Amino acid sequence: MEQNEKTALDEAIDRLWTQFLPQMRERVAILETAASGFAADKLSAADHVKANDAAHKLAGALGSFGLTRGTVLARELEIMYSRENGADPVTSARLGEIAAELRAMVENRK
Amino acid sequence: MAHRILIIDDEDDIREVAALSLESVAGWEVLTASSGAQGLARAVESQPDAILLDVMMPGMDGPATFRELRKNPATARIPVLLLTAKVQANDQRRFADLGVEAVLFKPFDPLTLSNQIAGVLGWN
User: Which of B11, B16, B109 is facing A57, going by the closest CB pair?
Assistant: First the structure.
């Protein structure tokens, strides 16, 4: 592929990112809410499933938009939300950290 | 001759990036469907050269869609590649055992997705 074709592809992917940014933000918001709910030991079963689903979708998508670390983090969340854990402080802190890092990544992708 | 490929995925971001990639990098004709049921109908009417099929979809999921494609004589011989974000080994084995041509993983690199597909299908 020629350099100008690669540039055109990158630009087209940037346009798709802009188009789907609201969807990415919504998925991250689900993870932020879930992290708060988990910390307060008030995460419902339905929200647990929603968080797992949001993490799964982010894991599958972010890397295709160049956010490889985002995929790694989202995958870690997907695994954590696939378990039936009580609200221990270590897990709780990690869920919050990852959600915050994903938020920063999604907001700052250039 | 440009190949014709059908992408079946309920996630519109993935569908759009994959379509962009296959059209602009490989120059293939791309058709899309956002559900298993829609994908089955499109496969019958458009007779694609291959199908890129998402695993996790609401309603009829990827494996169920694949089984329906195989049951129908009009689509039974179309090569199917599964696309999944599931990375656990037991999931991968389960998908491979279905009899699909290949299991590809999300996230994919838009620059190389068509090469992966072409390699599996001998289109190089």
Answer: B11
Test mutation, B106, B113, B116, chain A, max A CBs within 10 A: B106
Q: Band of the pLDDT at A4, cuts 50, 70, 90?
A: confident
**Residue ranges of A 35-64 with Cβ closer than 8 A to chain B:** 56-57, 59-64
ipTM for this model: 0.90
Domain range for B18 = 4-119
Domain harbouring B46, CATH code: 3.40.50.2300
- Count of domains for chain B: 1
Residue environment code for B43-70, b if the CB has 16+ CB neighbours within 10 A, otherwise e:
beeeebbbbbbbbbbeebebbebbebbb
Confidence (pTM)? 0.93
**Does any domain span residue B61?**
yes
At residue B62, what are phi and psi to the nearest 5 degrees?
-60, -50
B124 inside domain: no
Each residue of A96-108: pLDDT tens digit?
999 999 999 999 9
